[in-house]
Amino acid sequence: MALMVERARRLGWILLKAVLRFSFMAINNLVAIPSYVLYLIVLQPLRLMDSRTFWHIEGVMFKWLLAMVSSWGWAAGYTVMEWGDDVRPISEEAAVVIANHQATGDVCTLMMCLQDKGTVVRKMMWLMDHVFKYTNFGLVSLIHGDFFIRQGKAHRDKQLFLLKDHLDKYYHSRDRKWIVLFPEGGFLRKRRETSQAFSKKYNLPFLKHVTLPRMGATKVILKSLGPQQENGSLGAGDATRSASKSKGLQWVVDITIAYTKARPMDIQTWILAYRPPAVTHVHYRIYPIKDVPVETEPLTNWLYQRFVEKEELLAHFYETGAFPPPEGQKEAVSKEMTLDPVWLFLVQSFAFASGYMWYNVLQYFYYVFF
Fold first, then answer.
1. CB 203 within 8 A of CB 142
2. What is the pLDDT of residue 44?
3. Of the candidates 85, 62, 111, the residue with the CA atom closest to the CA atom of residue 265
4. Which of 66, 71, 215, 188 is nearest to 126 (CA)?
5. Burial grade of 332 (CB within 10 A; 0-12, 13-18, 19 or more)
6. How many angstroms separate the CA atoms of 205 and 301, rounded?
7. CA angle 182–121–349, rounded 5-degree value
8. pTM of the model
9. Which tens digits make up the pLDDT trace of 45-70?
10. 248 — phi, psi (to 5°)?
11. CA pair distance 102, 229, nearest whole angstrom
12. Sorting pLDDT into bands at 50, 70 and 90, what band is 150?
């Protein structure tokens, strides 16, 4: 009987905490996202006069919004441990990020672990499934200039054309640096069986912890933004020529995300916190862009090899609880990524203060005109 009472109390606490967290996050979204939009509407004259400054301000607010999302998981005890190469020295240079994709929590994890990497978050561009456009954060991503890609053979050619056009218009004009994509094209649980059947049919590597990547978006990004574009013209649209020539992409940042006991974190867990505190492990490998082929067959082989390495990294992690040490070293070193609670408090306070201010401004104009 006592055990049942204890379980009931624990369940009741989990449900109460979930309701309170969801309520806070709903209010957080209702004040932060409209405030972001209204600030940018007011700043439209600046966009016409000084586009670069406008997108700098937008990037700062975008980073703050992502910090709010990060704080939801951090406050629940969902932290990140980082392994592998140190990406901070290249945080101000152009890079394409390729990451494995297990669940919706992967995006939240990247939002968190990239917060302390210089200007990466405010200057990054995301490639996401088109469904994300219809979420609460979709409007923010649309304004920021992220690209929503529709999966499936029927849409492939058109989507790749639209991606190239999008990069030409917005990557340079908005001073973007890192571009993030998930080459697997979907979640592991949804694509694993199809990928393994494809591997068996064509005698390709058999993978369990990742799936074979798709080439289309990666190839378009490398050809559009690689160093060979250094002397090319910038995109159209609201583009303004950069004061200095862009060197194009300089690096590929290969990110491998691993979850304890191979239990991926989804966005529902991140928001409601019904799972106990957990550590997500993120492994970085950096490759100079000059080492990455662009033509289809060599690029396919190169990218397949990266995911074979991810498979080996994840297999080692799930067996030992740690990533293997870098070549030539005896021990792998990890570091916990932390967020500054004072900074998070100030960001949240600014969001709520902005929401209160805009409510009064809109209320005033409503009374004036109606």
1. no
2. 96
3. 111
4. 66
5. middle
6. 11
7. 125
8. 0.89
9. 999 999 999 999 999 999 999 999 99
10. 80, -175
11. 33
12. confident
Please give the pLDDT value at position 149: 87
Structure confidence by residue, pLDDT tens digits, 100-114: 999 989 999 999 999
Q: In which band, very low, low, confident or very high, does the pLDDT at 244 lie, cut at 50, 70 and 90?
A: very low
Letter for the amino acid at 41?
I
Dist. CA 58–CA 43, nearest whole Å = 9
Residue 228 reports pLDDT greater than 60: no
Neighbours of 207 (CB within 10 A): 22
Q: Whole-angstrom Cα distance, residue 301 to residue 319?
A: 27
